[in-house]
């Protein structure tokens, strides 16, 4: 069997190692073998590296957001062909699907086709952020998008996004405003512009005392909100208090990207916990998430093609190759990168 280069981790918290003996996977009928060109870095990389959680076998290859070129398409692929460009967030923790190596497998239902209106670098800012936001708002809170190319009627209601300057939060804002809602995002004051550019109509300071944040939510929304998404994993108490004491809506929704902490919310609030990490795994809940992701990919592809969903600002990490990815992850962990990190893995 052919071998290839890439980055492996021997076990939880073991160092990243550049190797040349990874087995090159073979695509099934509805799969393709893709050459990694750019990767987008996410908090999931340090999470998997340090805890070993989500990883299905060792030594492990990891990675999440990616853009690349199809080298070989399985016999039953209809959407993607050899030589085409794709981008996506892979099923994380499964080595043969992971992009920190020369080539990796994709299932064609889980990938976006790259069109002319999006570059290979910015394309790898989309997958994890958009699919996570989609699960939170469409699957978790019943938000409905207009057909691609059309505009939803403006609603007199707000969606509140905690962490509205982050990757997931900015896609929550894009989706909620596409659905016709006004968006109120929490962020650090220095990141107001990022949140506003993503579609927020207003922001508030996520580091102010909780009473001040509640007062701002009340002042800005007048209580006209039923939905809060916590994309910060730091805003559970604030979200519950806002829904219980400020919201005037009869039915209340709270979605969170925190799928690992113990948490409860009052019975009056519908809780949804996003579990994108279940993509591509076996089991009832996992297969449900996998079907939802495939449905969302097809819906979002149309909105990306019309320019109604946009990629994020990004920081292109210096250099190219596996060492550049390792350095990029270290810089992200050290908090040195304020925008979504993107790294060139290989030339075509
Ligand atoms: N469950 C899932 O399936 C799933 C999927 C994808 C991601 N995630 C998780 O989602 C989280 C967000 O991911 P991301 O890529 O969007 O990260 P990111 O780009 O780093 O964004 C983090 C956001 O959290 C805010 N924040 C950080 N500390 C805060 C605090 N103390 N109080 C209030 N807000 C705070 C940041 O606001 P400022 O910088 O403006 O202060 C920023 O808006 C990560 O924890 C990630 O692991 C989960």
Write a short abstract of this structure.
The chain has helices at 44-51, 120-123, 127-139, 167-178, 192-197, 210-221, 236-246, 284-305, 322-333, and strands at 3-9, 16-23, 31-40, 65-73, 85-89, 103-107, 112-113, 158-162, 182-187, 202-205, 225-230, 252-256, 269-273, 314-320, 340-344.
Please provide a written account of the structure.
The protein has helices at residues 44-51, 120-123, 127-139, 167-178, 192-197, 210-221, 236-246, 284-305, 322-333, and strands at 3-9, 16-23, 31-40, 65-73, 85-89, 103-107, 112-113, 158-162, 182-187, 202-205, 225-230, 252-256, 269-273, 314-320, 340-344. It is an alpha/beta fold and 348 residues long. The chain has 2 domains: 3-126 and 311-344, Quinone Oxidoreductase, Chain A, domain 1 (Alpha-Beta Complex), CATH 3.90.180.10; 130-278, 3-Layer(aba) Sandwich (Rossmann fold), CATH 3.40.50.720. Strands 3, 4, 5, 6, 7, 14 and 15 form a 7-stranded mixed beta sheet that branches. A 6-stranded parallel beta sheet has the order 10-9-8-11-12-13, sandwiched between helices. The protein has a two-stranded antiparallel ribbon with strand order 1-2. Helix 5 links the parallel strand 9 and strand 10 (202-205). The protein is globular. The two termini are 23 Å apart. The structure holds NADP nicotinamide-adenine-dinucleotide phosphate. NADP nicotinamide-adenine-dinucleotide phosphate binds at residues 42-44, 47, 128, 132, 163, 165-169, 187-188, 191, 206, 231-235, 257, 259, 274-277. Keywords: Oxidoreductase. InterPro entries: ADH-like_N, ER, GroES-like_sf, NAD(P)-bd_dom_sf, Trans-enoyl_RdTase-like. Pfam families: ADH_N (PF08240). Belongs to the zinc-containing alcohol dehydrogenase family. This is Chaperonin 10-like protein.
């Amino acid at each position: 069997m052919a071998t290839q280069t890439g980055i492996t981790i021997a076990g939880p918290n073991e160092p990243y190692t550049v190797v040349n003996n990874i087995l090159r996977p073979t695509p099934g009928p509805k799969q393709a073998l893709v050459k990694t060109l750019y990767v987008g870095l996410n908090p999931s990389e340090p999470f998997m590296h340090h805890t070993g959680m989500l990883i299905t076998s060792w030594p492990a290859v990891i990675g999440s957001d990616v853009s690349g070129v199809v080298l070989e398409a399985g016999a039953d692929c209809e959407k993607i062909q050899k030589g085409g460009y794709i981008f996506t967030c892979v099923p994380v923790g499964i080595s043969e699907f992971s992009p920190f190596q020369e080539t990796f497998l994709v299932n064609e239902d889980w990938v976006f086709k790259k069109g002319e209106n999006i570059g290979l670098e910015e394309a790898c800012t989309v997958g994890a952020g958009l699919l996570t936001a989609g699960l939170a708002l469409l699957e978790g809170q019943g938000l409905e998008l207009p057909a691609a190319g059309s505009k939803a009627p403006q609603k007199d209601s707000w969606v509140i996004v905690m962490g509205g300057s982050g990757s997931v939060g900015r896609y929550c804002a894009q989706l909620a405003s596409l659905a016709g809602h006004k968006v109120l995002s929490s962020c650090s004051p220095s990141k107001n512009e990022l949140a506003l550019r993503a579609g927020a109509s207003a922001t508030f300071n996520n580091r102010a005392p909780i009473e001040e944040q509640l007062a701002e939510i009340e002042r800005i929304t007048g209580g006209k909100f039923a939905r809060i998404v916590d994309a910060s994993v730091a805003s559970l108490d604030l979200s519950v208090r806002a829904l219980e004491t400020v919201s005037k809506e009869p039915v209340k929704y709270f979605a969170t990207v925190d799928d690992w902490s113990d948490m409860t919310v009052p019975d009056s609030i519908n809780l949804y916990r996003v579990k994108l990490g279940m993509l591509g795994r076996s089991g009832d809940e996992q297969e449900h998430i996998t079907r939802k992701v495939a449905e969302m990919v097809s819906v979002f592809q149309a909105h990306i093609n019309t320019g109604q969903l946009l990629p994020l600002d990004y920081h292109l990490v210096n250099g190219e190759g596996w060492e550049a990815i390792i350095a990029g992850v270290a810089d992200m962990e050290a908090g040195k990168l304020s925008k979504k990190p993107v790294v060139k893995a290989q030339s075509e």
